[in-house]
């Protein structure tokens, strides 16, 4: 089993919604957090959202108020609900897992990545 596998990507028109899912290996429940990143053509990979083991959520400014990250640790699932999608949200979205909690000295950092799922938003 791959450690992080995304699904739920697809094509949608502006203003539409998509929900991404990521099934992760059980041991990531003992890591500092989980998150979503994305990479658009010609751009660097960028942080989108994260959820730490204590439930703290953080969002990039560009998606705040439109996207919601959640997790179900009992099912080893991570989700990203994306609403009010814009053409600039078009990218490959990656599920990410943080470092093992015992290795984190300051803040959670992401060290494990899925293969990505394509999201395309058209006008």
Describe the structure.
This protein has 123 residues and is mostly beta strands. The protein has strands at residues 4-7, 10-13, 18-24, 33-39, 46-52, 57-59, 67-72, 77-82, 91-98, 110-113, 117-122. Strands 2, 4, 5, 6, 9, 10 and 11 form a 7-stranded mixed β-sheet that branches. Strands 1-3-8-7 form a 4-stranded antiparallel β-sheet, with no helix packed on it. It is globular. The mean pLDDT is 95.
What is the CA-based Rg, rounded? 14 Å
Beginning-to-end CA distance, first to last residue:
37 Å
Shape: globular
Query: What is the ordering of alpha helices and beta strands?
Result: EEEEEEEEEEE
Count of helix runs: 0
The percentage of residues in β strands lies in: over 45%
DSSP helix fraction:
under 10%
Reported for the largest beta sheet, the result is: 7 strands, mixed
Number of E-type strands: 11
Q: Could you tell me the mean pLDDT?
A: 95
**Which ranges are low-confidence, i.e. pLDDT below 50, for 5 or more consecutive residues?**
none
Briefly note the structural class of the backbone: mainly beta
Helices and strands, with pairings:
Elements: E1 4-7, E2 10-13, E3 18-24, E4 33-39, E5 46-52, E6 57-59, E7 67-72, E8 77-82, E9 91-98, E10 110-113, E11 117-122
Parallel strand pairs: 2-11
Antiparallel strand pairs: 1-3, 3-8, 4-5, 4-9, 5-6, 7-8, 9-10, 9-11
